[in-house]
Give the backbone structure.
Amino acid sequence: MLLTVGEIIQNSWELCKKNWRVFGTYAILLLLPSIALTAVGFINIFLTANFPSFTAINNIISLALFAASLVFGFWVAVALSISIKNALENKITEWKKTMKDSLKIIWPALLITVLSSIIIGAGILLLIIPGVIFMVWYAFSFYEVIFENKKTVESLRASKNLTVGRWWSVALRLAAPSLFYGLIAMLIGYALISILQLITNYPLAVDIGIQFISNAINVLFAPITSAAIIILYKNIKENPVASSAIAEPPKI
């Protein structure tokens, strides 16, 4: 039997509360690229304004740092997902070891992420509804790669099979916890930004503060939102649908 939305939210909260030190490390690691990119952005603005001849070099360096930050952030996200799965199975591992082990699967994970995003994006461009359907079908392909070591096409097929016969149930359990935590994050962000604007009205300070607050809230909520999805993923794996439902998927 699938967990209810309330149970998924409660279980994800309890998991993160119990393992906040471990997950907090990954949140800090996720924040580092954002801090670096924000700093580089302001430095780039300063250099461009005062040394126009270095604009091309600054843009190349900024682009390289942006690409490196994306890869690093993705690497941390893979390691965080593995750490969450281990925590659910009471197998806590040291974050350095998890980061090292996740290097082996970062490129297959990146490939499936890009491929599934292209498929979903194409579906949205076609008629929106196919994109939403694909979004649920392939929501777990990333985890099939990093947890089950499946190949790209195989992971897409496995992810879709997990939702066949219960698309609406899975869609609800995917969306509701994310919306719940997203609303809390938005309210916290609004409160902190309001306080910041009361403290100072200096434009540059406000811009930097808003950027930092937004990035900090996003990474702080990353473990709990990821935990909710992984809890659902494991719950679905433990409660497969009948083989007949997989063999005859509903027509769209």
The chain has one domain: 5-241. Residues 33 and 68 are 9 Å apart (CA to CA). Residues 5-241 form one domain.
